[in-house]
Amino acid sequence: MSVNREQFEKILREKGLKITTQRVLVLTALSACPDKHLTAEEIYELVKVDYPEIGLATVYRTIQLLLELHLIDRINLDDGYVRYEIGDLGEEETRHHHHHHLICLGCGSILSFQDDLLEELEGKIAETTGFSVTDHEVKLYGYCEECRRKID
Amino acid sequence: MSVNREQFEKILREKGLKITTQRVLVLTALSACPDKHLTAEEIYELVKVDYPEIGLATVYRTIQLLLELHLIDRINLDDGYVRYEIGDLGEEETRHHHHHHLICLGCGSILSFQDDLLEELEGKIAETTGFSVTDHEVKLYGYCEECRRKID
DNA sequence: TTTGGTGCAAAATTTTTGCAGGCTA
DNA sequence: TAGCCTGCAAAAATTTTGCACCAAA
């Protein structure tokens, strides 16, 4: 589950940060498009619809803040854009597992999926390298059903 | 195994591309640092040692070319830099599996590892979504042995 | 010789920063 | 009211492009 507005306001208050229209709108835009993987520019355009006076610099500053609060995730889908999406809300210990991304090399579409198959791998790594894994990000490349049909 | 110079020259020749000192030196720099994850700027600085007249634009154009030839991989370790590393040479069908990266959140060090544990997952995905996976990239975040000791 | 490749500089992008003024608490 | 936050514009940083010249084939 992602943050709702009240939770967000509570988080800001607890950190001594101010609740501003801009911050709420940026988070709202990301919440409204959970699987859209928006760029900073896209977020800016979305927020401008309801609040035309917002500046792009504020969007960047807010993104930075939301990242630090772990409310959103930065993702890079190798299309040359840095993107952001609303994160799962959770305790520190269970926050680890964002969903992953299936990237179609044919049409560029993105499918998200959830899977904890890597837990086993994480254990193995801890054993062999001494590295304790707390989080992971997986990108899978391939061809979606539709593109596969086109190719054949 | 990564490309050697002769293989590289052969590939260029077959594609009707010219073998230039700059192209050879950029590839050589990347080959010499298989686990260094160099940025464009770093590659530029490295090549300049032996060939001071090279331009940064040429480095970018060469990186682009090497990516298209699948001789190098672009990686993003979330430190704000786009990085490149020499890729494994292989047939189209077996090229899938680059190694993956363990990123230490403490000291920023990167460990590379190879694992095919995702094969199982790929099968599962094909079944449930119709998406055929041809490649994957995994990043694992955590704390390396040294940083773990410091924390405790 | 021909064509593609290069270096340089300028342009285009993307992101960050400084500062004066505005708004939240 | 005090200080954080914002908008604007300028700056910084990164990558791309135009063009004349050079070099590989």
Question: What descriptive keywords fit this protein?
Answer:
152 residues; 22% strand; three-stranded mixed beta sheet; 6 helices; Arc Repressor Mutant, subunit A; DNA-binding; Dna Ligase, domain 1; alpha+beta; 2 domains; homodimer; three-stranded antiparallel beta sheet
Task: Write structural notes for this entry.
Two copies of one chain form a homodimer. Chain A is α+β, with helices and mostly antiparallel strands and 152 residues long. The first copy, chain A, folds into two domains: 1-90, Arc Repressor Mutant, subunit A (Orthogonal Bundle), CATH 1.10.10; 97-152, Ferric-uptake regulator, C-terminal dimerisarion domain (Dna Ligase, domain 1, 2-Layer Sandwich). The first copy, chain A, is 43% helix and 22% strand. The first copy, chain A, has six helices and six strands, in the order ααβααββββαβα. The first copy, chain A, has helices at 5-14, 21-32, 40-50, 56-68, 118-129, 145-151; strands spanning 38-39, 72-76, 82-86, 100-104, 110-113, 132-143. Chain A is flat, with a radius of gyration of 18 Å. Chain A starts with a helix and ends with a helix. In chain A, 27% of the residues are buried. Chains A and B meet through helix 5 and strand 6 of A and helix 5 and strand 6 of B. The first copy, chain A, binds a DNA duplex (25 and 25 nucleotides) through residues 13, 16-23, 40-41, 53-58, 60-61, 82.
